[in-house]
Every structure is written in structure tokens, then in C-alpha cells.
Amino acid sequence: MAAFFAAAALYSSVGHGGASAFLAIMALMGLASDQMRPAALTLNLLVAGFAAWRFIGAGRFDGKLFWPLALGAMPLAFLGGAIRLPEEYYRILLGVVLLLSAVRLAFRSGTGPDAQATRRPAPPVAMAAGAGIGLLAGLTGTGGGIFLSPLMIFLRWTRAETTTGIASLFILVNSAAGLAGNHLVLLHLPPGLPWMLAAAAAGALLGTKLGLRFYDPAILRRALAVVMLIAGLKLVLT
After folding, report:
1. What is the pLDDT of residues 14-46, one digit of tens each?
2. Closest CA to 60 of 158, 164, 151
3. Are 18 and 142 contacting, i.e. CB atoms less than 8 angstroms apart?
């Protein structure tokens, strides 16, 4: 539960739901893959929903960029969530996502304000990007924030500060779509989920408060990257 609290606090501070970290923790706990995806998405709904409320309320949002991304992502997240990959393929795919996420966490820069965006993408481009992220998010049981935030910053679609509100709401709707797709294949939630939700809720309260004060959790981020690296290697190699 301490690990779920720390993950929620860390990820919510930058507008993320924390599904990749929750999946890493559950992989180390040895949960079955048919429980991991819906549990991570349920936790995402709580953490990302709270983060969206806090960051959008603080003015960190761009609706003209968000809606094409979300409209492209949601149908594909639903589709990806409905696809039940064989255990060995799911573990490899999730392991690769966790390893990539660990690298990004370990080497990414701070989350302070960036220069003004020079080019917002055309709606079809944003929808295509959202669709790709949505499919991958649905397949792996994540909300897609670990892919969306760096894409927006790298392509200068918006300011780094504004990505918190966009990413949190994107993760919320994506997680809802992915979870709906998961129910089509009768995936089950783990019995310990209420405790995970309580820990994640407490972490989100702390994380969003720190995020609104421009807190840069570099040390915790790198520590979490180590956990995700271990879990990713465990999934890929075992």
C-alpha cells in the first residue's frame, strides 16, 4: 500500500494517473494479468480524475488540443481493452512499456513551464496521434499519459505546464474506455483493490498539491524508475 501511495503521489504531481507504476507494483506482487489491467485502469480513474479536477481548475488546460486527441483515442482504447492477449504476449508487451517508462522517468527533465507552443497540430494529426496512443494504452492497461506528455512537449504542441491538465483528463477518458473494453472479455478485479484505491487516493491528494506548487520529484521519480525497471525485466525475462 505504501508503494501505491508513493506512485499515486509521484504521478499525480505531473498530471498522470500512475497506471504504469501500478502495473509494475502488481507485477512484483505476482498478480495475474487478467487482474492487472482492470485494476490499473480503475486506479487511474481515481487518480487522474482528481488530478484533472485540480489542474484544470487551476487553468492548466487547452481544450482545442485535448478534444481531437481524446476523440481519436477513446474508440481505440476501448478496442485495445477488449483484446485479451495471450499471457506470454501480454507480459512481453507490458514489460517493454515498463522498461521504456523507466528510461523516461530516469532521464526526463523537470516539469516546470516551457516556452510557448509554436504549433498546435491540425485536428486530424492530433486524432491520429490519440488513436495510436489509445490502442497501446488499451492493450497494456495504461491511460496513455506516459506517451502523450512527452509527445506534446517534444513537438511543442503546448506548454509543459499545460500538459498536466490535458494529460490528466486524457488519461481519465482513456482509462474509462479501456475499462469498458475490459469488461467485454470478463476480466476480474483483485480482492485487495479497495486498499489500493485508498492508498492511491491519499497519494493523489499529496501529489496534486505538490504539483500545483511546481514540485519536481526528481529523486522519487528515479527511485520509481528502478522499481519499474525491475518489474519490466521480470516480465520480459520470466
Report:
1. 888 988 889 889 988 888 877 888 899 899 999
2. 164
3. no
Q: Where are the alpha helices (DSSP H) in the chain?
A: 2-12, 19-29, 33-57, 63-82, 87-107, 123-140, 145-154, 163-184, 193-212, 218-237
Tell me which residue of 142, 179, 150, 149 sits closest to 167, measured CA to CA: 149
- Give the whole-angstrom CA distance, residue 48 versus residue 13: 10
Query: Which of 64-94 are b and which e, b meaning 16 or more Cβ less than 10 Å from the residue's Cβ?
Result: ebbebbbbbbbbbbbbbbbebbeeeebbebb
* Angle between the N-to-C axes of helices 87-107 and 123-140, in degrees from 0 to 180, rounded to the nearest 10: 120
Q: How far apart are CA 123 and CA 134, in angstroms?
A: 16
The pLDDT of residue 223 is above 80: no
Q: Considering the chain, what is the average pLDDT of its residues?
A: 85
Residue labelled with grid coordinates 488519461: 171
Q: How far apart are CA 162 and CA 62, in angstroms?
A: 7
Cell numbers that stand for 22 in this block: 501500478
**The total number of residues written for the chain in this structure:** 238
In angstroms, the Cα distances linking 47 to 41, 64, 81, 135, 153 are 10, 23, 19, 21, 22
State pLDDT tens for residues 50-74.
Answer: 999 999 999 999 999 999 999 999 9
